[in-house]
Design brief:
- The protein folds into two domains: 3-259 and 473-481, 3-Layer(aba) Sandwich (Aldehyde Dehydrogenase, Chain A, domain 1), CATH 3.40.605.10; 263-455, Aldehyde Dehydrogenase, Chain A, domain 2.
- Helix content is 43%, strand content 18%.
- The mean pLDDT is 96.
- It contains 20 helices and 18 strands.
- The protein starts with a helix and ends with a helix.
- Helix 3 crosses helix 10 (218-228), helix 5 packs across helix 6 and helix 10 (218-228) packs parallel to helix 11.
- A seven-stranded mixed sheet has the order 12-13-14-11-10-15-16, with helices on both faces. The protein has a six-stranded mixed sheet with strand order 7-6-5-8-9-17, with helices on both faces.
- By secondary structure, it is α/β, with parallel strands linked by helices.
- The protein binds nicotinamide-adenine-dinucleotide.
- This is Succinate-semialdehyde dehydrogenase (NADP(+)).
- Residues 28-485 form the Aldehyde dehydrogenase domain.
- One of its GO terms (molecular function) is oxidoreductase activity, acting on the aldehyde or oxo group of donors, NAD or NADP as acceptor.
- Keywords: Oxidoreductase.
- InterPro entries: Ald_DH/histidinol_DH, Ald_DH_C, Ald_DH_CS_GLU, Ald_DH_N, Aldehyde_DH_dom, Aldehyde_DH_NAD(P).
Length: 525
């Protein structure tokens, strides 16, 4: 791909229009956004200052209550229109995502479809998750107890570059449906995807000021954002997540942290190896391995290890690397120098410790400045960096194990716990093994897509992989505060005059005993 093809994705006027939508209260320095495909400048966005964050939160807050006052089904229908807008503008969005993030078109396409699925899911099921519900009361018939769900106010979203469309928009949609405003801080590398997507939200009917975008450096913009919003959704590295979580704690706001992983797949001897190889090649090298739920470790039963490895290496070698705005190449570029440096450092360290590089292990400047070959390692020692730290690149190790117990033990030998995968002909066995893997999600006979597309089910990490969940009921209720309203039908529950406290206490004890007995006898609530 040449520089002019990349530049044509974002004509100067489009870039200026999008950058003009960034919230700022004065002239700001510019930050240049470059395409990883060619290292060409795509455009510039303002390097926002803390004052811009304050203005963004104020504007969002001012727009929030009118939005929250709109009936829930109206807000839901705006989400349906968001899905329509994403579909009708898909090609343009895919171009921008590819140009900014350097990914293959198929990887960009998954992002667009994810937004559509998420918008449709929350438009359909969100109102039910938010509905006021009767709760069991301490004193049935006497107290009527109802739980209501109110928007928190302004939700801040700090997002990474690897899935710039999905993570910016799909995590925001439930917040909007719940009646909140949002302030989005996209990653430095991928602001134009976020800005164009937010423009599409407005075209779909999201009120003008309800969603604000601030661009710039993480510390300068991200930290004041945490300090001024009512809830924070953070997706990024575990290291930054710790800083952001402690800031959120300081400001006493709730937050979800979607962080890194060192995901493991387990291949049992009865697995269909063709499916396992196909699934795990995709699961390891999708988005050039820059995917939080991709696999960096594969443990294969020794009985099928040799055959699996031969087929896995051959399938890896058949992947086409390339920079093209079409569905040709399978694997795209790494996003930036720092990413390439990490990948090279992990592979160099593994080599020094005696690892065999079965395939890959080289950068590919002939394809583009930041391309790296899909790489398969064997004999990776447990003390190698690539065995324990997240590489976040196209590098996976394959290791033989004696049995399922060893596979589970090795899969769990990490502080991360984001995603896992089990391959076996016996789905029941796969499911019970999945329950032994310490991760927020596990796919059986699949890499991750079926799990991710199960938008009704919560998704997130345990341990160093994070706190909180996206998707499903948890993924929208986190953007709300609960309010419990308990109405007494008879007398207020205070000692009744003129009874002495001793008599009232005895009466209360008798009532509690009677209630316990009744509950034993029936499912009486
Ligand atoms: P990162 O932590 O460097 O940056 C993420 C975001 O945080 C960026 O917008 C950045 O500007 C901002 N930031 C940086 N310092 C900050 C600070 N002090 N205060 C507030 N914000 C700050 O992560 P990255 O390199 O952009 O993304 C890659 C990481 O994200 C990987 O570890 C990957 O596993 C993880 N990730 C996790 C998920 C998930 O769902 N669990 C999804 C995608 C990516």
């Amino acid at each position: 791909m040449n520089a002019s093809t990349v530049s044509a994705v974002l004509p100067a006027r489009t870039g200026e229009r999008l950058a003009g939508a960034v919230t700022r209260v004065g002239d700001r320095e510019s930050m240049t956004v470059r395409s990883p495909f060619t290292d060409t400048a795509l455009g510039t966005v303002p390097a926002c200052r803390p004052a811009d964050v304050t203005a963004a939160v104020e504007r969002a807050r001012a727009a929030q209550s009118a939005w929250a006052d709109r009936p829930l089904d109206e807000r839901a229908s705006v989400l349906e229109s968001v899905a329509d807008e994403m579909l009708s503008n898909r090609e343009e969005l895919l171009d921008i995502v590819q140009a900014e993030a350097g990914k293959s078109r198929l990887d960009a396409h998954v992002e667009a479809l994810d937004v559509v699925l998420t918008a449709d899911y929350y438009a359909r099921e969100g109102p039910d998750h938010l509905r006021s519900t009767r709760r069991g009361s301490g004193f049935p018939l006497v107290t009527k107890t109802v739980e209501h769900r109110d928007p928190v106010g302004v939700v801040g979203l700090i997002e990474p570059w690897n899935y710039p469309l999905t993570l910016a928009i799909s995590d925001m949609l439930p917040a909007l449906l719940a009646g909140n405003a949002a302030v989005l801080k996209p990653a430095e590398a991928t602001p134009f995807t976020a800005l164009r997507a937010v423009e599409l939200l407005t075209e779909a009917g999201v009120p003008e000021d309800l969603v604000q975008v601030v661009t710039g450096d993480g510390e300068t913009v991200g930290e004041p954002l945490v300090a001024s919003v009512d809830y924070l959704t953070f997706t990024g590295s575990t290291e930054t997540g710790r800083t952001v979580a402690s800031l959120a704690g300081e400001h006493l706001i709730d937050a979800s942290m979607e962080l890194g992983g060192k995901n493991a797949a387990v291949v049992l001897p009865d697995a269909d190896l063709s499916k396992a190889v196909r699934g795990l090649v995709h699961g390891s090298f999708a988005n050039a391995g820059q995917l939080c739920i991709s696999f960096e470790r594969i443990f294969v039963h020794e009985g099928v290890y040799d055959e699996f490895l031969d087929r896995f290496v051959a399938a890896t070698e058949s992947l086409e690397l390339g920079a093209a705005l079409d569905f040709g190449p399978d694997v795209g570029s790494l996003v930036a120098d720092h990413q390439l440096e990490t990948v090279e450092a992990h592979v160099a360290d593994a080599r020094e410790r005696g690892t065999t590089v079965e395939t890959g292990g080289q950068r590919r400047e002939d394809v583009g400045p930041l391309f790296y070959e899909p790489t398969v390692l064997t004999d990776l020692p447990e003390d190698a960096t690539a065995a324990s730290e997240e590489t976040f690149g196209p590098v996976v190790s394959v290791t033989p194990v004696a049995d399922a117990d060893e596979a589970v033990a090795r899969a769990n030998a990490t502080d991360y716990g984001l995603h896992g995968s089990v391959w076996t002909a016996d789905a029941d066995r796969g499911e019970s093994l999945a329950r032994r893997i310490d991760a927020g999600s596990v796919s059986v006979n699949d890499a991750y897509l079926g799990m991710w597309a199960s938008t009704d089910a919560p998704m997130g990490g345990v341990g160093d992989s994070g706190i909180g969940r996206r998707h499903g009921r948890e993924g929208i209720r986190k953007y709300t505060e609960s309010q419990t309203v308990a109405t007494q039908r008879l007398h207020p529950l205070v000692p009744a005059n003129p009874l002495p406290n001793r008599v009232a206490a005895r009466g209360a004890s008798l009532s509690v005993r009677a209630l316990r007995r009744l509950r034993e006898l029936s499912s009486f609530r």
